[in-house]
Amino acid sequence: MSLNKVVLITGASSGIDAAIGRELSAAGAKVMLGARRTNRLDTLAEEIRANGGEAMTRRLDVTDRADVAAFAKTAPGLGTRRRDRQ
Prior knowledge:
By secondary structure, the chain is α/β, with parallel strands linked by helices.
């Protein structure tokens, strides 16, 4: 079974959040990875893509509300789905 979802992951540059990104991508989800350490995000996204997954990255500071909103808007497919629900 393949997850046909877009998943946003904060704190994805290391630890359990990076592992979640790998696992969800392996299950077929498109992942949007966010964290302050962009060099680590880029490395993780390259790994995911090399394994056949789809990943995007964006620098993210979760203490900044505007940054979080911009992160969500950048994620692939989210804008279309949100409009469809209204």
